[in-house]
């Protein structure tokens, strides 16, 4: 380890006898030089743990008899060169922790000497070539943390030397092939975080070298394997977050070195086998299943509380773990929810009652004010009416408003004789030609059948006897022409009627 920085010199690979170049764990930057693809004798190139970027030379491997290429832990992008193993000598291909994309080259399946392939933590996508699964000398295949799809090929039966298969956090689908039971040297199978489905193949139980089996967070189903006596070296079994059913196999208690057991998040039922007391577990989790019955005494302690949560029918010496305790908690939460609902309803009732009381007081005040004011009103009509002014005045309430005109609001009035009338109340001075009806005429009422469009009746409700004022205003222009008084009286009487028509909004005949 040194502190070399800068770019790798292009002419470094021009040396005709250069076979090995180790400049890993430095601070080198820039791309891998194109000249590396033309180094005729280069066998081993280790550039890992630098800050190299860019893409790899497209011809890398075609003219160079590479045996080992390690560019891990850089920022190299682009695709894996398709001819990386054209010379057929490649044994180690280590490219983890980069930004590589695209597919795994099909030609990689022809590298019969490959022993170690580490392509994890990149952006590789597509299906893994079938031939890669079954390379005969492969001992390590790490493809985790990519975007790979497809299935684990049955060709894996040919991987006679495969010891570690890591496929976690991809998008693999389908069932685990039964041919995996032929991989007799398999020590680790890690394929969590995929979309694998179906049951576990029974052949998996015959792998005597199996030490780690991690298949969590898939869609596997069926029952857990029986006949697992061969798992003498199994130290970790993680099948959490799948859809396994049935009971927990008592045979698990006979595995001598098992110290990590996680079966949580499934649909397992039955009791926790007492045989599990034979294990010396550092990690034990069977939570969120459908287990029931008593706990084995060794695990019925507070230290194992988290191991059994989410099994409502599971009982033991751990406080608040049994179904009764669960029911008590459920009753407590139900009671609390009922209390909160009651408080809310009571508050809502108080609010509604307050609004109703305020509205009633407002109505009472409005009617009292109306009754106090109407004693000052005088009704003057143009012809004999079949109703009293009080019937009209009682209807001047905001609840009876049905419209609004230019001179004021329009109210609905139901009279004692059964008629339904429209009443218009005005409060502003009304311009009538050259004459203004003053503010003394505070109110006027127009009455006409709501459903008919015929001539109606006009009723004035002033503070004074205003009709005289209206007629006088009509006479004012020609008051000095006394010689024509009879004609003027007739004409001005028509004038006053016309002005009343304006005040009444509609035209009418007296």
From TrEMBL:
Source organism per UniProt: Panicum miliaceum
GO molecular function: kinase activity; receptor serine/threonine kinase binding
Transmembrane segments: 336-359
Protein name: Receptor-like protein kinase HSL1
Entry keywords, A to Z: Glycoprotein, Leucine-rich repeat, Membrane, Receptor, Repeat, Transmembrane, Transmembrane helix
InterPro entries per UniProt: Leu-rich_rpt, LRR_dom_sf, Plant_LRR-RLKs
């Amino acid at each position: 380890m040194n502190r070399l920085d800068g770019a790798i010199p292009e002419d470094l690979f021009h040396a005709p006898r250069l076979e090995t170049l180790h400049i890993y764990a430095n601070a080198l930057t820039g791309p891998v030089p194109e000249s590396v693809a033309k180094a005729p004798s280069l066998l081993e190139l280790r550039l890992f743990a630098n800050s190299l970027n860019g893409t790899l030379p497209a011809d890398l491997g075609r003219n160079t008899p590479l045996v080992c290429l390690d560019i891990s832990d850089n920022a190299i992008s682009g695709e894996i060169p398709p001819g990386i193993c054209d010379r057929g000598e490649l044994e180690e291909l280590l490219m983890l922790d980069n930004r590589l994309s695209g597919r795994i080259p099909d030609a990689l399946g022809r590298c019969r000497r490959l022993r170690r392939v580490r392509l994890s933590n990149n952006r590789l996508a597509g299906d893994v070539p079938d031939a890669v699964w079954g390379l005969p000398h492969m001992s390590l295949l790490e493809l985790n943390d990519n975007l790979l799809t497809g299935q684990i090929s049955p060709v894996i039966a040919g991987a006679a030397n495969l010891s570690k298969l890591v496929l976690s956090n991809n998008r693999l689908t389908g069932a685990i092939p039964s041919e995996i039971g032929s991989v007799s040297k398999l020590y680790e199978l890690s394929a969590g975080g995929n979309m694998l489905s179906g049951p576990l193949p029974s052949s998996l139980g015959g792998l005597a070298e199996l030490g780690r089996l991690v298949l969590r967070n898939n869609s596997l189903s069926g029952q857990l394997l029986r006949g697992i006596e061969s798992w003498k070296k199994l130290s970790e079994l993680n099948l959490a977050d799948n859809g396994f059913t049935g009971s927990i196999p008592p045979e698990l208690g006979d595995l001598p070195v098992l110290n990590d057991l996680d079966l949580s998040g499934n649909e397992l039922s039955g009791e926790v086998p007492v045989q599990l007391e034979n294990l010396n577990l550092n990690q034990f989790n069977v939570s969120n299943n459908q287990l029931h019955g008593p706990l084995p005494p060794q695990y019925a302690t507070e230290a194992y509380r988290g191991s059994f949560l989410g099994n409502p029918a599971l009982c033991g010496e751990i406080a608040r773990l049994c179904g009764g305790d669960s029911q008590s908690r459920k009753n407590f939460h139900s009671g609390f929810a009922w209390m909160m609902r009651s408080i809310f309803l009571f508050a809502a009732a108080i609010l509604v009652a307050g609004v109703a009381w305020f509205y009633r007081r407002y109505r009472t005040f409005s009617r009292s004010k109306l009754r106090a004011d109407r004693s000052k009103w005088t009704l003057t009509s143009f012809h004999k009416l079949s109703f009293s002014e009080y019937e009209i005045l009682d209807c001047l309430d905001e609840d009876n408003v049905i419209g609004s005109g230019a001179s004021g609001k329009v109210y609905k009035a139901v009279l004692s004789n059964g008629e339904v009338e429209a009443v218009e109340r005005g409060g502003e001075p009304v311009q009538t030609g050259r004459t203004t009806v003053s503010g003394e005429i505070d109110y006027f009422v127009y009455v006409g059948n709501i459903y008919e469009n015929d001539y109606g009746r006009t009723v004035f409700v002033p503070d004074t006897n205003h009709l005289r004022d209206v007629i006088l205003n009509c006479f004012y222009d020609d008051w000095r022409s006394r010689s024509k008084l009879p004609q003027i009286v007739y004409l001005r009487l028509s004038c006053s009627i016309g002005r009343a028509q304006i005040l009444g909004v509609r035209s009418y005949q007296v």
